[in-house]
Amino acid sequence: MNLVDALLAQHACEHVILHFVRRLDLGEPADVADLFTEDGVWEWPPPGDGRRIEGREALRAYFGSRPADRLSRRLMSNVLVTITGPDSASATSYFATYRVDGYEGGDPVPAGPPVQVGHYEDTFRRVDGKWLIASRTLHLPFGGDTPRVG
What we know:
By secondary structure, the protein is α+β, with helices and mostly antiparallel strands. Helix content is 22%, strand content 45%.
């Protein structure tokens, strides 16, 4: 892969990472599934709760089950994409999640600390010219309960 193709692939993977959090926070959470390959996997291995969601339709149901009254914003940083082949890549990215449940719109919510700080480890595959997440593994060294407002 030449330098220009590698840079374009890196950019495309970064774009997928950012669209993931944008869809969760500002879009339709179930649409996150469209960023995964058909056999894509999202998992939170131990010491997390061992959750593993596999397949695009299972991912659509999982992310679509997000509470309707949840307000969240995720901050992404330290995105490092490594091209591992002509149609494969890996990435590590850090995130902080600010989130409350019980939000009904209107006034801003008083700011508090993030409820999660961690990182994702991703693998990507290019399918029909489009870069998609093949696997996403959540690592969460800092986490707490989601507060309620109201």
